[in-house]
Amino acid sequence: MADDNVRRDDDRQHEGRGRGWMGIIIRFIVASIVLMVTAAVTPGFRSMGFGTALLAALIIAAMDYVIQKLFKIDASPFGRGLSGFILSAVIIYLTQFFVPGMEINLMGAIIAALIIGVVDAIIPAHVL
Questions:
Q1: Is residue 32 part of a domain?
Q2: Rounded Cα–Cα distance for residues 38 and 43 (Å)
Q3: What is the pTM of this model?
């Protein structure tokens, strides 16, 4: 019984690891690199520099957060099946209107959502 309590306390101490400022910064850097690579290999998605990709990652995260809070919908490509995938593609497409230097067509946004979704499935957010 005492061992169970000790294990639970240890689990609680390690729950917050990676969720501080350093974890958030690393998450956005990785997201920016994924966006840059995705832009380079996706037709209809103009290649972008690191600053543009970082701003795009911030905008995408902000749009995802707002949609999650307002509509209770997870906008990750594999979060809600087909609707989450489509919502993710729409968010990527709309991001170009807020980020100077980012250009993407609708088909490029769909392919980018697929690539980002696969990468997110391989490297989940809680790892970073």
A1: yes
A2: 9
A3: 0.75
Domain limits at 88?
2-122
Spatial distance between the Cα atoms of 50 and 116, rounded to a whole number of angstroms: 16
CA-to-CA dists, residue 74 to 18, 43, 86, 88, angstroms: 21, 26, 11, 9
Mean pLDDT computed over 92-112: 93
Residues 79-91: tens digit of each pLDDT: 567 777 888 899 9
128 domain residue, yes or no = no
Question: Domain for residue 82, yes or no?
Answer: yes
Q: Give 67-74's long-range contacts (Cβ < 8 A, gap of 24+).
A: 67/91
CA dist 14 and 11 (Å) reads: 5
Is the residue at 127 inside a domain?
no
